[in-house]
Amino acid sequence: MEIEQSYILNKLSGKIFEVITASADVLQVETYVIGGYVRDMILHRPSKDIDVVCVGSGIELAQEVAKRLGKGAQTAFFKNYGTAQVKYQGTEIEFVGARKESYTHDSRNPIVENGTLQDDLNRRDFTINAMAICLNRERYGELIDPFDGLSDLDEYRIKTPLSPDITFSDDPLRMMRAVRFAGQLGFFIEAETFEAIERNRERILIVSKERIVDELNKIILSPRPSVGFELLEQTGLLNLIFPELVALKGIETKEGIGHKDNFSHTLTVLDNLARTTGNLWLRWAALFHDIGKPRVKRFDNKLGWTFHGHEFKGMKMLKGIFQQMKLPANDKLRYVEKLVSLHMRPIVLADEEVTDSAIRRLLFEAGDDIDDLMSLCEADITSKNPEKVKRFLHNFQLVRSKLKEIEEKDRVRNFQPPIDGLQIMEMFHLPAGKLVGELKSAIKDAILDGEIPNEYDAAYAYLMKLAEEKRISADTSLQTDLQ
Ligand code: ATP
Ligand code: MG
Questions:
Q1: Would you say the CB of residue 129 lies under 6 angstroms from ligand 1?
Q2: pLDDT for 196-239, tens place per residue?
Q3: Measured from the CB, is residue 174 less than 6 Å from ligand 1?
Q4: Could you give the 3-state DSSP secondary structure of residue 418?
Q5: Which of 417, 446, 421 shows the shortest CA–CA distance to 436?
Q6: How far is the CA of 35 from the centre of ligand 1 (A)?
Q7: Residue 477 has pLDDT above 60, yes or no
Q8: Is the CB of 201 under 6 A from ligand 1?
Q9: How far is the CA of 34 from the centre of ligand 2 (A)?
Q10: Rounded-to-integer distance, Cα 132 and Cα 52, Å
Q11: Mean pLDDT value of segment 108-124
Q12: Residue 49 Cα, ligand 2 centroid: separation in angstroms?
């Protein structure tokens, strides 16, 4: 592939590049824009950060650039790594001196020394990421492409510049990067590179969970996440980093009856959702929605294959998986738990006969995540029968309008019962505990079931009646074992 010089020059115009050139020339240091920025520029993809390598001190170059950019530039120096970052008008520019890396087999961290541009390109992960463009005035716009990355860009190929076994063994995260770039860019992984991933897959276990999750997030956020996950599965990486997902794979047949392959179903749901949302955690929820299925699978003589309760089993598995993978065990976990546990609920509400109270309950439990839940449920329709798909979508339309109607009428979406646990404890001199919880949820249930309106007086009267039935008096102290 040839690339027009005028295209490069055009892309490298603008104040930032002018300033880098002037700085590099005044310091007399050979300077290049390198890696992802060059790749994306040739692919006509937008790219936010600029990586700059100079054969000398990246920190000094960054200082000069920041000085010339003036007030609008924010600079951060990472002296230990010899890198510096300059932020200017929303663009991040990273400066580093060209380096040579050598790995020893028993250490994860390479020995880093100063090196030439060629040394620096040798340590890069893929040929398409190992191109540089000179920014010095005299050679402005000159493309350095020692591994013919241009041809690989042209032919959509992911390939390591040097021996793939060494490249992957040195930094095994590169195996996931190969998969991620294949998915993001719509490229394929060249055969030798692919085989080396299969051979070196176990090495992924020395990589930190945080780096792995970073790549997984990028795969999940790509336009068609199934591409990356299929590749992870085919190379054997997925089984090492996310075995619960691989457990969904396969079709078992009994008495001539098979069930669907829940791995490819899950990926289809994820792809469906990727068309409608960029919400990372909603996409994770899609990946997890059927995760409990293998553990509850049964064959019933009358019903065939059943997966009863898989949504609860799945929800219960999440905490452990989040811990294992070092996913954030905070509100994100709770959000995914909620979506997984509720994902079977809307379908039964599509029935004409469904009561307002069932709808109120779902609204209450899903709260502000009700729309996300509905999107997940719609994405979950993966039948190949167009009639069925039409019917299901129509049903969900029905559920959506019922939800809307009830929410407008009763406002239960973010509802808090008018009497809380603390008030109950004070009223009856009760210590925190099971009994308080029971009284509290009795009030909540009465409201959701439409027995009483969502008001303090009604709730108070209801509570008093309940207390009388349970023989709890408002004056006696500490009645822990009364029920
Ligand atoms: P993106 O920014 O979209 O993730 P990128 O290619 O710019 O893609 P970065 O992680 O920003 O990826 O890295 C910038 C460049 O640094 C890459 O293009 C590649 O040349 C090099 N690089 C990054 N990580 C590695 C690695 N683990 N091994 C080898 N080279 C790497
Ligand atoms: Mg980048």
A1: yes
A2: 999 999 999 999 999 999 999 999 999 999 999 999 999 999 99
A3: yes
A4: coil
A5: 421
A6: 6
A7: no
A8: no
A9: 10
A10: 9
A11: 91
A12: 6
93: enclosing H helix or E strand: strand 91-97
pLDDT tens per residue across span 377-406: 999 999 889 998 898 888 899 899 989 988
Return the closest-CA partner of residue 96 out of 112, 72, 73, 74.
Answer: 112
Does residue 445 or residue 109 have the better pLDDT?
445
**Tens of pLDDT along 234-249?**
999 999 999 999 999 9
CB count within 10 Å of CB 236 equals: 17
Q: Which ligand 1 atom sits closest to the C-alpha of 123? A: 29
Residue 94 CA, distance from chain mean position: 25
Q: What pLDDT is recorded for position 483?
A: 37
Specify whether the CB–CB gap between 324 and 304 falls below 8 A: no
Residue 120 Cβ contacting ligand 1 at under 6 Å? no
**What's the pTM value of the predicted model, to 2 decimals?**
0.88
The 8-class DSSP code of residue 43 comes to: T
Q: Whose CA is nearest to atom 4 of ligand 1?
A: 36
- List the structure tokens of 177: 């990067």
Among the residues of 172-241, which ranges form H helices? 173-185, 191-200, 209-220, 225-235, 237-241
Atom 3 in ligand 1: residue holding the nearest Cα:
36
The encoded tokens of residue 90 equal 């929303």
Whether the pLDDT of residue 428 is over 90: the answer is: no
Ligand 1 neighbour 158 (Cβ under 6 A): no
Q: What is the average pLDDT across 103-117?
A: 83
Kindly give the distance from the C-alpha atom of residue 464 to the centroid of ligand 1, in angstroms, as a whole number: 65
Q: Report how far residue 305's alpha carbon sits from residue 307's, in angstroms, rounded to the nearest whole number.
A: 7
34 touches 72 (CB < 8 A): no
Provide the residues around ligand 2 (an ion) whose CB is within 5 A: 36, 49
Which protein residue's CA is at the shortest distance from atom 22 of ligand 1? 124
Q: DSSP for 49-72?
A: EEEEEESS-HHHHHHHHHHHH-TT
Q: What percent of the chain has pLDDT over 90?
A: 68
Cβ–Cβ under 8 Å, residues 23 and 58: no
Q: Which runs of consecutive H residues, i.e. helices, occur in 299-420?
A: 310-325, 331-342, 345-348, 356-366, 370-379, 386-410
293 neighbors 314 (Cβ within 8 angstroms): yes
Q: What is the mean pLDDT of residues 90-110?
A: 87
Check if 33 has its Cβ closer than 6 Å to any atom of ligand 1: no
pLDDT band at 44 (very low <50, low <70, confident <90, very high): very high
Question: What's the 40 CA to ligand 2 centre distance in angstroms?
Answer: 9
Average pLDDT over the chain reads 92
